């Protein structure tokens, strides 16, 4: 007796999402750098969009302070994702304070706020805003 082989795993996205990990305190001065890092994940060196069918995830579970500088960063990262083939930015490990602030400023509809602790094994970049970078 033999069994056929299953194709793929159930409930698993076929393409590994791009993952940007944001940690520490995000300042306004750090926002352009975060956008550049996300662009590096999404675009080939020749400027063409890399793997347009993959997701774009941003893990914000390690942020040190939830404030408007972080909200600005998320808004701009969402724009970068949309420019790369109409993708929607998905936030992972969102602190309750950030979820409330995104609702308050009307960005909850612009980005997907996922519940729980997503585990990303994709092309990851870990970034911290750094406490010494003015702004905020």
From TrEMBL:
<protein>
    <recommendedName>
        <fullName>MlaB-like STAS domain-containing protein</fullName>
    </recommendedName>
</protein>
<feature type="domain" description="MlaB-like STAS">
    <location>
        <begin position="20"/>
        <end position="107"/>
    </location>
</feature>
<dbReference type="Pfam" id="PF13466">
    <property type="entry name" value="STAS_2"/>
</dbReference>
<feature type="region of interest" description="Disordered">
    <location>
        <begin position="117"/>
        <end position="136"/>
    </location>
</feature>
<dbReference type="InterPro" id="IPR036513">
    <property type="entry name" value="STAS_dom_sf"/>
</dbReference>
<dbReference type="InterPro" id="IPR058548">
    <property type="entry name" value="MlaB-like_STAS"/>
</dbReference>
């Amino acid at each position: 007796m033999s069994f056929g082989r299953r194709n793929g795993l159930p409930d698993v996205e076929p393409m590994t999402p791009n993952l940007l990990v944001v940690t520490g305190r995000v300042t306004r001065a750090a926002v352009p750098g975060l956008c550049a890092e996300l662009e590096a994940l999404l675009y080939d060196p020749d400027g063409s969009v890399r793997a347009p069918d993959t997701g774009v995830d941003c893990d914000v579970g390690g942020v040190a302070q939830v404030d408007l500088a972080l909200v600005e960063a998320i808004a701009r990262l969402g724009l970068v994702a949309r420019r790369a083939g109409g993708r929607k930015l998905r936030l992972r490990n969102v602190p309750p304070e950030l979820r409330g602030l995104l609702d308050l400023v009307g960005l909850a509809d612009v980005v997907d706020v996922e519940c729980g602790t997503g585990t990303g094994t994709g092309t990851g970049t870990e970034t911290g805003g750094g406490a010494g970078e003015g702004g905020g």
